[in-house]
What does this fold into?
Amino acid sequence: MLLYLLNKFIKIFKKEVTTMSIYKSKMQEYLSQLREILFANGVSKDEARLIENELFKKMNDEAPPRIAVIGETGVGKSSTINALFNTNLPVHDFAACTQKVEKINATTANGDSITIIDFPGLGEGIMADERHWELYKKELPSVDVALWVLSAGDRAFGNMITALRKISDICSDKELSRLVFGINKAEHMSPEKWNIRTNMPEENHLNNLIGFQNTVLSAIREIIPEWNGKIETYSAHKRYNLDALLLAVLQTVPETRRWKVKQTSDVASWEELVDPEFLRLAKQINEEGERNC
Amino acid sequence: MDVSNISPSERAELDRLAVYLKNTDLAQQKSKEMAESSFRQWFADALKVLATGIGISLSAIVEYIKTIGTAVSVGFARGVEISRAKGEQERERLRNKRY
It folds into this structure.
């Protein structure tokens, strides 16, 4: 127990001196630039200090990220959140067949808060229920981003198409622009040629993933032709392409909230699952390439 | 193990790994830059709200934000440079307004 608490403390401390201090030092940098102007304009030292304190307070009080996750049961919604934010959501936390929108206040391993809004799976029964769509309409405008999770290789996305058609009818363009599509379980795409040493799909496996992503994108564009959002293929389990998924999420979050989402994120390390010797050689190749440039 | 003594198929996988690694670094860098730019925007907005809320004694801040207003999107620091470049004339105007 003591060891657990000690480890937790170390994690929180490490986070405090890394991410949080980055923003604090940035703020200090901006404030010192501002102070010069303020003094030149007759603002007193006390007033400048007041501004400084208030801004730090505002920064600490900034609301935690609000992330909606949409998708069928079993596609890996909770494991995706765990992989991006280092939360510890039980994999079966999102109850199957629920017709309720659930709000989950999760805590990351670093002690940050995050609000997850779980939209029910998109089974036939749920789609017929008008109350369900009212909940989408009510909740979507208030989230930073809505992550729609699919499973790689699952071509039966008829439910997704029906649901998306309904959502595009009831939501504004602005709300629809908050959608990011994530294709999880990249390792399960046929022909399942996952290279254990590189922790990556082999070439023909990757080509099939690209093909599947394009199919999903075409299906989305057929329903919402003007949708210009992000779609990424990844694996929460293999930690593959999570940095690209986080980038897609950040690009979708409203501008003034991006720093908060980034500060809360703690992406699982893909490198940890790569053969260390291969990783060293790949870095060597890149360094040599840069030198030759 | 050395790059020169691995099989061609391993070498091909290794090259793909190197490219993926580069892309991952790029995505991390972009996320970082995006978060920094977002923080600058947040800072300017928070300052604006604060100045308005606290009142007239902080009107210089409002003037300051107006001065850097167009520069916020390209960076707070650059905004300061722009306001500096506007020179003493602008500061004099603010001083006169205040006293």
Observations:
- Chain B has one domain: 8-98.
